[in-house]
Amino acid sequence: MMSMLLSRRDLEFMLYQWLKVQDLCTRERYADHSRETFDAALDTSEAIATEQFAPHNRKADLNEPTFDGERVHMIPEVATALKAFCDAGLMAAGQDYELGGMQLPTVVEKACLSYFKAANVGTASYPFLSIGNANLLLAHGTPAQIDCFVRPQMTGRFFGTMCLSEPQAGSSLSDVATRALPDDAPDAADDPLGARYRLFGNKMWISAGEHELSENIIHLVLAKIPGPDGKPVPGVKGLSLFVVPKRIIRRDGTLGERNDVVLAGLNHKMGYRGTTNTLLNFGEGRFTPGADLALAPRGGAIGWLVGKPGQGLAAMFHMMNEARIGVGLGATALGYTGYLHALEYARTRPQGRLVGAAGKDAAAPQVPIVRHPDVRRMLLAQKAYVEGALGLNLYCARLVDEHKTHPDAAARTRAGLLLDILTPIAKSWPSQWCLHANSLAIQVHGGYGYTRDYPVEQFYRDNRLNPIHEGTHGIQALDLLGRKVVIDDGAALTALDDAIQAAIREAGASGRDDTRRHAQALAARWSRLREVTQTLWDAGDAMRTLANASVYLEAFGHLVLAWIWLQQALAAEAAAGGADDAFCHGKWQACRYFFVWELPTVDARLDLLASLDTTTLDMQDAWF
Question: What pTM was estimated for this model as a whole?
Answer without folding.
Answer: 0.97
